[in-house]
Design a protein that fits this description.
Length: 370
């Protein structure tokens, strides 16, 4: 064997820009939510009040005092019971692609969190994320140039579903991005996503990460940790989050991550758990000269590029749908999920029964006048 080549210099800690005030608060809460420490106990009285409101609200829907509606097509809600990122959007994308591969016409609805508008509208691949929300924009762009995927946003999901069906009456299945707690939309199937931290300390907001008590009835659980969260009888399946082996430019071209190794990069993330993204970049052998954690759904209007323009900016694909409008030179690394194939088999079995039932109750199309 030949003599070994020159060895890279020892790794040094990556400096970081100070996180924004909101990002600091988000990261602080993430730490509090993992244990039942003094801070969590101090917040527990508020959590008890919050839990009572959750129970009362659910009871009002169950008794009909608050009205819920069904759009007339099978509805699959992909959501979570924990605050913060759990990887819902990549699961929605993977689910929509799977259903399309089965020959089904699929549509996606969402609230469009963080957008500047409040109307009901279609989301196109070229729609500005500021007007439709970063996650719906990412979903629509993920299907650009392939099988089209109708995506609609509205403050009320039933409004988005009606608009989707009016524009695409052949839709077989509606997938709702987020909305486990949006009880005004009746649904046929619920998929609950957990990141590798599970239910944290198991307490409700703000003392813990739970938006509602767990366990609760759902149809399927997808979890990134080694074990599913306890207490549920729902079928549970593992999922793995990983980075694509390439970064994407604003023009759609790709740069293999291997080509970025050895370069000093400025990494930023405006997601619920930015540290996860930075760790995944480092695991790919990338050198992060600077890391910058911003608040989830940050709009980037006030963001300034680092003074050292020689350092390429690398970010999440969710951030890029907003960042590219101001800084098209940024590189985005897509996040993909690998889901246990048994989940899709179980989902297909359950969905086939729902589709048969929906077809039996769907009114026939009216004949055109002679």
């Amino acid at each position: 064997m030949g003599a070994p080549g020159p060895q890279p210099p020892p790794a040094t800690p990556s400096p970081a820009r100070p996180p924004t005030g909101r990002a600091t608060a988000e990261q602080g809460l993430q730490k509090i939510w993992q244990t039942r420490g003094l801070a969590a106990w101090a917040l527990s009285p508020v959590a008890l009040l919050y839990g009572a409101l959750v129970v009362v609200r659910r009871l009002l829907y169950r008794t009909g005092l608050l009205h819920s509606e069904h759009p007339g097509r099978p509805v699959i809600v992909v959501g979570n019971v924990i605050a913060g990122g759990a990887g819902k959007t990549p699961v929605v994308i993977a689910l929509a692609k799977h259903l399309q591969a089965q020959g089904l016409q699929v549509g996606v609805i969402s609230r469009g969190y963080g957008r500047s508008t409040q109307d009901c509208r279609a989301v196109l691949p070229e729609s500005p994320a500021s007007e439709v929300g970063d996650e719906p924009a990412l979903i629509a762009r993920s299907f650009a140039g392939t099988a089209s995927l109708p995506v609609f946003v509205a403050p009320r999901r039933i409004t988005a579903a009606r608009a989707l069906l009016a524009a695409h009456p052949g839709t077989d299945v509606i997938v709702c991005d987020d909305g486990l707690q949006h009880l005004a939309l009746r649904r046929d199937m619920e998929i609950c996503i957990f990141n590798d931290q599970g239910v944290g300390n198991g307490w409700l907001l703000p003392a813990g990460p739970l938006r509602e008590p767990w366990p609760r009835r759902v149809d399927f659980v997808l979890h990134a940790g080694d074990k599913p969260p306890g207490g549920t009888s729902a079928p549970s399946f593992g999922l793995q989050r990983r980075l694509a082996p390439w970064a994407v430019r604003s023009d759609g071209s790709q740069v293999p991550l291997a080509q970025l190794r050895g370069q000093a990069l400025h990494a930023l993330a405006a997601v619920a758990r930015p540290g996860d993204f930075f760790a995944m970049l480092r695991s790919e052998g990338l050198t992060l000269a600077h890391t910058e954690a911003l608040s989830d759904h940050y709009d980037f209007n006030s963001w300034k590029r680092p003074l050292d323009a020689r350092k390429p900016v690398i970010c999440t694909e969710k951030d890029a749908v907003k960042l590219w409008a101001l800084h098209p030179e940024a590189l985005a690394v897509p996040l993909a999920v690998q889901i246990d194939p048994r989940f899709f088999a179980a989902l297909d079995t359950k969905l086939s029964a729902l589709l048969a039932q929906a077809a039996a109750h769907r009114p026939p199309l009216s004949s055109p006048p002679a």
